[in-house]
Amino acid sequence: MDPLPQTAPKRKRQTSPSGWIAFLAHFLFILVAWTLFIKYLFPIGYAVAMGEPWSQYIYWDLWPVIHLWLGWALLARPNYTYPLALVVSVLEIVIIVSFFARFLADPEWSIWRTNWFVNKVFVLACFVLLLGTAVWRPGAIKGNSQTARIT
């Protein structure tokens, strides 16, 4: 006996992401960890050690959350994965290149800015690779899971 009634919609078979897509997802996870250390833990530790307010050297943003979400999406492959990868990649590249143009016009090589610069070089590399994959191999990124329906 078939466990599902005949009226139940058939689900698409979910496939695993390719090795390259898994690499990009894990690249994003490593960037999240590195960014959390560079932007939050290191500045908090330094400020506390210097007797300054703990948030003195923190530049708040939500990019690590977005990178974590995108890394998860590359592995879980919900239907919105491709547009998410495309939009985040383009935004990151435009933002980082504009930051680099301003920074390199008059660089300040303090420990804070050097850490920021090195981190952004790797973030830029990740998103150039992801955008290249989205443009030249779009099928590798497209989601394949069914979205859950609440009825």
UniProtKB/TrEMBL annotation:
**Where does the source fall among the domains of life?**
Bacteria
Keywords (A to Z) from UniProt: Membrane, Transmembrane, Transmembrane helix
TM helices/strands, residue ranges = 20-42, 57-75, 82-105, 117-136
UniProt name for this protein = Uncharacterized protein
